[in-house]
Amino acid sequence: MRKVDDDGTYIVSECKGDGSCGACQEEEPKEEKKKLEVPEVKGNPFDRMSHWKAKATDNQVGGEHYKDFLIPPAEFVTKNKLGYLQGSVIYRMCRYDRKGTPLEDLEKAKHEIDLLIQLEGLK
Hints:
By secondary structure, this protein is of the alpha+beta class. 30% of the residues lie in helices and 11% in strands. It has two domains: 2-35, no CATH class; 56-119, no CATH class. It is built from three helices and three strands, in the order βββααα. Helix 1 runs antiparallel to helix 2 (84-95) and helix 2 (84-95) runs antiparallel to helix 3 (102-119). The longest helix is centred in the last third of the chain and has 18 residues, at 102-119.
């Protein structure tokens, strides 16, 4: 029978507690304490978890509308240091004919361009 003690050791007893060993008839069964051995892990265990190595740019959550572009819109917007409204227009132009609401996406892009003109003081 084994039992783990508070200090991380476990106690091994010859008695199984079912009377089959004959030690149950003794007043105190023979026990010996042994330190619990934990195997050493070599290297970084996370290296073996390949799903953690996937890059966010390899995956698109919620649709397929950006997958066919040579340069994904998120990468284009980030690398070119575009602002929020500029990026929103790029996203909408890339997906307007690939999602279910083409006119709505074009109207939103037009609105974002109007906002950009106004906020930049170009008119």
